[in-house]
Write a structure and sequence with these properties.
alpha/beta, Rossmann fold, two-stranded antiparallel sheet, globular
């Protein structure tokens, strides 16, 4: 009689060592992903993680599952392709704020429309840190960086507010330094039937000397057990808070899932015949 092997966080370990700076928030995000997958008992061969370009993308070597290191800002369309190809896979996208909230903003909006069953985790350290600290869309006004030496003059981007008004059915925020809370958010996001967006407040110990763990701890608070996560207007109000920073599930609702609406049997033969027909037509043109 065979005995199923219990999946642990170590089941997702690889032989590669992370290249992040000591104290980087990506360590917490990586650990939370491994913890969530193991607690849900999802085997690694059933998981695809698509990565954007940035420090967080280096997890492609350190989490044992199917991985795809995509182009800058393009993690979500690749993740959507994987989900459409095999809707039974657990598909996760991991990106940074400079990645997902700049080049990737349009994909975030349209994944919200699609409501595909994908979990997006954004490592938000408010900088382009892999390229040594340029201002990103979430860099606060007035911040001096390599690209804004006299202070950022553009308004700070609000990813959760955009996600909410675009139609995302699971909107949440966690903190890289609160491992148990973040693990639970990722678990809930994976279990949610539809598009899940989890923004993660993350320290960059080398390049961001303002938004430190201590700075966040003075401002972060958890949404309580009495918080109504089905209240859209309340979620939007919480997303717009700036003096204090709530973490937790801001909003959750149900809507038909994109790939579940696709008839996977109808039209299959027609598509195949069309491809063959086009191939034959093309060959005849070169006879």
């Amino acid at each position: 009689m065979s005995i199923d092997k219990k999946i642990t966080p170590q089941s997702y370990h690889t032989s590669y060592l992370p290249t992040w700076c000591p104290g980087c928030g990506d360590f917490g995000i990586m650990a939370a992903i491994k913890n969530a997958l193991s607690e849900l008992q999802i085997p690694s061969h059933n998981v695809v993680i698509v990565y954007g370009i940035g420090c967080a993308g280096n997890m492609a070597s350190t989490i044992k599952c199917y991985g795809f290191h995509s182009l800058h800002g393009r993690a979500l369309p690749v993740a959507l392709g994987a989900k459409i190809a095999n809707k039974n896979l657990t598909v996760i996208a991991v990106a940074g704020d400079g990645d997902q909230y700049s080049e990737g903003t349009n994909h975030l909006i349209h994944l919200a429309r699609y409501n595909s069953n994908i979990t997006l985790i954004v490592a938000n350290n408010r900088l382009f840190s892999l390229t040594t600290g340029q201002a990103s869309p979430t860099t606060p006004e007035g911040t001096a960086t390599k690209t804004t030496p006299w202070g950022e003059i553009k308004h700070e981007f609000n990813p959760l507010a955009l996600s909410l008004v675009s139609g995302t059915t699971f909107v949440a925020r966690g903190a890289a330094f609160n491992l148990s809370h973040l693990t639970n958010l990722i678990k809930q996001g994976i279990k949610h039937p539809g598009f899940s967006h989890i923004d993660v407040l993350q320290q960059c110990v080398t390049l961001n000397k303002i938004n430190t763990v201590e700075w966040y701890q003075q401002r972060v608070y958890e949404l309580g057990a009495n918080y109504d996560k089905n209240n859209y207007q309340l979620a939007l109000d919480k997303a717009l808070e700036t003096e204090k920073l709530p973490i937790g599930i801001f909003y959750q609702t149900k809507r038909p899932v994109y790939e579940e609406k696709i008839d996977w049997t109808a039209g299959t033969n027609a598509i195949t015949e069309k491809i063959v027909f086009n191939k034959e037509k093309l060959l005849k043109e070169f006879e």
